[in-house]
Write a structure and sequence with these properties.
307 residues, alpha/beta, 9-stranded mixed beta sheet, two-stranded antiparallel ribbon, DNA-binding, LysR substrate-binding domain-containing protein
Amino acid sequence: MTSPLDLTGLDLLVRVAETGSVGAAARQLGMAQPNASRLLAKLERQLDLTLLVRTTAGSRLTTEGEVVVAWARDALAGVERVLLGARSLAAQRKAHLTVASSLTVAEHLAPRWLARFRREHPDLHVSLDVGNSHHVLERVVSGRVPLGFVESPTVPRTVASTTVARDRLLVVVGPTHAWARRRTPVTAAELVGSDLVLREAGSGTRETLVRALDLAGHALGEQRLELASTAAVKAAAAEGGAAGVVSELAVAAELATGQLVAVPVADLDLSRSLRAVWSPERRPEGPAAALVRLARADAQASPSSSV
């Protein structure tokens, strides 16, 4: 054989075996009889076999033709299994949305978004892949997830993005810390010179603080404890030994109970955008696009995280 077999030709041959007629088989496939005859002749040339004996009464298979028809039925059944399996996989993928999210969004915004999203899309299974902003961007760029939410101050050119909410960082201390009783704002210079407890490198919270300090002409000092979760930062700050820097979204309860105290900072802009990100080649569509719209609408309705 000099070229791949045409599956339509095999299907046609099987139908000739079943109907006893090239014309009838051609009609089943919506094909003109002359075209069907040419396709069968091509198949015979490719296989170097005579498959049919054509008579005025119809067409019948040769011995070789009967063997080829048996093989063709197996081949066509295999192709049908492939098509059915592929459709099933595609349906499962469409019914399953995996979203990556940075910790602040995952802990304080995504639960509300996804609860509402589930009410609107009850047949869709949604998974949340949680990590820091660097992890989320890596998952989106690599194509492992179609959509992510990050809190870093900037995003690379390898992704497209839209702002879905606003947030700001707060400097917080325990009630026994000296700054808890302070009446004047802390300066950026004092902040970088003090003991701090911060999120790890790669987190959006950490990157927002570093960028704000850089714009104010300061660099992060060495006197810091680095922890991998906001909950750990809050717990360490509450002990009173060091100031923590966390999202305003994350400390509402602790501020209300007095477990933590917010400390004003005089000369730092600690506001930030929370963004949905995706690959430029995979613009959100269907459920992913609906989730982005829902997140934006939720933020507009919520004063604490309005766009």
